[in-house]
Amino acid sequence: MSPTPANLTDDPGMEADPRFLQAVQFVLGDLSAHEQAAFEAALIDDLGLCELVAQATRLTHGVQLALAESDTPVVPATPTDVRRDRWLVAAVATLATGVAAGFFTTLTAPSTPASTQAAARLVSLWRDAGRIHSVAALSETTVDAEVRDTTGDDRVPNWMLAAVSLENRPSRPPLPGNSPAEPWEDN
Amino acid sequence: MMESEDSTETESASGDATQNCGSGTSSAERLAPELVRELYHQHAAEMLAFLQGVLRDGDRAREALQNTFQRMLESGHTARLDSIRGWLFRVAFNEAMALRRRQSARDRTLQRFVSTQPPTEIETQLPETEIIRAEDVARLKEALKQLPADQREVVERRMHRDETFAQIAADLKVPLGTVLTRMRLALQKLQKTLGRPPSKD
């Protein structure tokens, strides 16, 4: 009958063969070349030592199996996984930094003079809404602001002056021979 | 007479086993295959464990085991039955040493070629042998749980993680002797759990 683990104690009287540890070391390859040669020389004539080696091998094999079975499998990360994870972390960190920096810049950056001027003008127009009788005035203001916003140039472009002049042109055609020079015509 | 040098070594290694042998080696005096098979069932697991411990290679251990019982078939009648166990250990050890010498002499390609040769009669007749039973492994697993933590740690790190005793001692910041003592105490307990080698008796 095989002993059960419950029977195992630290009883010093239960002394096993003192050579068993050496047999285990022989099986595990822990002995030096000199020690191994001496051990193998003893194996030739020592039946008890041969039995110890067999027992040490079975025990070593069994313990390795038992420990492998009771182990929770842990899959170590491969170098490729590690590299991929590092790239992923770096990419996410860069993206987050960029978003945060953009948000911070938007909050703290001063407005440009052009946009501030246009906004102030719009506010002024809204405030004086009662005095604005012409939608064209608002449109002109808005267009003006938009143009200044995009170009940074306060000068009104020629194409816009031409368009406004066309709107103000009289519907009746001028009399022949008595036509003043049109303001947009180059003399 | 024995044909090869290895066989001669086997004969001399058997020592007093020749006392009862007859002078002839005819097939009529050889052990009956049924008796060899019975002896195989009784001793093969322990022999395989012994050979694996000596050679530290499962494949070569099995090859040495087959050679050992081939020798038994050829010259086992020269041994006394009451000392057949000792005779087997000696023959097995000599076979292991012969294999090791051949291994160092041949290159690996030639060794693979040899291992693909058709099996001999004894190889086809003898069953597979395991050196430890599943129930022994289960008992060892329970016994490992019963070990004190410091002893279990040494066993686990040496046998499972393949750390050297010196590494373990350095890592735990204890003397090497302390580590070896913990290992020895653990082995004493585990050894009692192991039971007899697998056999049919």
What this model shows, in words?
The complex is a heterodimer of chains A (187) and B (201). With 187 residues, chain A is an all-alpha fold. In chain A, 63% of the residues lie in helices and 0% in strands. In chain A, helix 1 crosses helix 3 (47-70) and helix 5 (113-127) runs antiparallel to helix 6 (135-151). The N and C termini of chain A lie far apart (128 Å). Chain B has helices at 5-13, 33-55, 58-75, 84-105, 108-115, 121-125, 134-146, 149-160, 165-172, 176-194. Chain B is elongated. Chain B folds into 2 domains: 5-125, no CATH class; 134-194, Winged helix-like DNA-binding domain superfamily/Winged helix DNA-binding domain (Arc Repressor Mutant, subunit A, Orthogonal Bundle), CATH 1.10.10. Chain B is mainly α and 201 residues long. The chains are: A mainly alpha (187), B mainly alpha (201). At the A-B interface, helix 1 and helix 3 of A face helix 2, helix 4, helix 7, helix 8 and helix 10 of B.
The computed structural class of chain B is mainly alpha
Average the pLDDT over all residues of chain B and give the rounded result: 79
- pLDDT below 50 for ≥5 consecutive residues: which ranges of chain A? 1-14, 72-80, 132-138, 177-187
Q: How many DSSP H or I helices of chain B? A: 10
The largest chain-to-chain contact, stated as pair and per-chain residue counts, equals: A-B, 46 and 50 residues
Distance between the termini of chain A: 128 Å
Query: From the helix content, strand content and strand pairing of chain A, which structural class follows?
Result: mainly alpha
Please give the number of β-strands of chain A. 0
Largest beta-sheet characterization of chain A: none
Rg of chain A, Å, rounded: 49 Å
Cα-atom Rg of chain B, whole angstroms? 20 Å
